[in-house]
Specification:
CATH architecture of the largest domain: 3-Layer(aba) Sandwich
Oligomer: single chain
Radius of gyration: 25 Å
Number of domains: 2
CATH topology of the largest domain: Rossmann fold
Number of helices: 18
Strand content: 5-15%
Length: 405
Amino acid sequence: MAIKGPLSGIRVLDLTHAYAGPMASLHLADMGAEVIKIEPPIGELARMDFIPGGGATLVCAGRNKKGIVLDLWNNSGKQAFYNLVRVSDVVLENYRGTEITRKMGIDYETLKELNPRVICASLAGYGATGPYSDHPSYDAMAVAISGMASLTGGYAATKPLMPNPGTADCIGGLMTAIGIVTALHERERTGVGRKVEVSLLDACMTLLQREFQHYFLFGQSPPRQGSISLSIPPSGFYRCRNGYIALGSCWPQICKAIGMEWIADDPRFMDAESRVLHREELEDLLEQGLQKADAEEWLDRLRAYDIPCGPVNTHAKALEDPQVIHNKAESYMEHPTHGRLRSIACPTKIAAAIEGEDACPPALGEHTEEVLKKVLGYSDEQIARLNKEQEENFEEMQKHVRKQF
């Protein structure tokens, strides 16, 4: 593959679909791991029609991976998978619960018999076991059940808002990648693999540690956050004459910066507790001052006072932001039919450790023959036999696949 890095030499068998699981393997691929994405003959859930062969999810989460097609519900596909397990380091899946993986014969107990060094990582919606484990789940369910959705929306909102983008999926994928790397490190000492389990629900719960601590300490659920911080106002998003800016903890410098020094002496805002109790009044006063000038003017002035601040950008504006450009947050991939595609680069920078250009997500089954021949030594006859069996069992395979996710 295109990327060489700290995880070069590690082979990952990626059975995931949609967004959370592919994000987990993306972190590994960006660090140089050889990620072999294994899809059923009908393809995984993210293969939509945004561009031929895949949607935005597939493009952003599928880079730097190889793609093969194996039907794990028939004998030839299962045996090919087992042969790959014997020469791989990690198996990653995000099926619902353990019943499915046991039925498919891809559970940790089965795979460790083939390869005691293998690390099996499971990223489920609710968890591998439990009352919800066999229920279908996506990002929205984790956000709702964890209590995160109770914090979204304005103060007087009657309907919670979905936090974007894919909060549960992104943090779940990241935590899974951390778990895999941790298990790989442990294997250096022990010589044996490990089962790693992460759920989207638990990932959301850990994002809410501060809010739950508030509940544990005071016995009250935090109210909806709105656009400013509940614990350290003034902090959050504030309206200017032509848009919004973000402010960090800035009391009392903000009062002088906007020419309203008297606010700092107002009894309602004298201490942190008072500012929390009167946060809406404080927000209104600050915005009265901020609406006297445009966001760009305020940012220059606020930075002169060493106040943490920034513009509230659209996607287009974010890509033009000088710090974003300096950080090289945008990357490019050459697609065989669509030319140069823009993407967001890996955020983890390890000096002089990662080399190469990002590669586009593979077409469905693009590397099947390459992997089976080079990794497993399959002959043309064996590959033809496997393909024929998968074609003959295509309809039966479709029935199984619909029940997996």
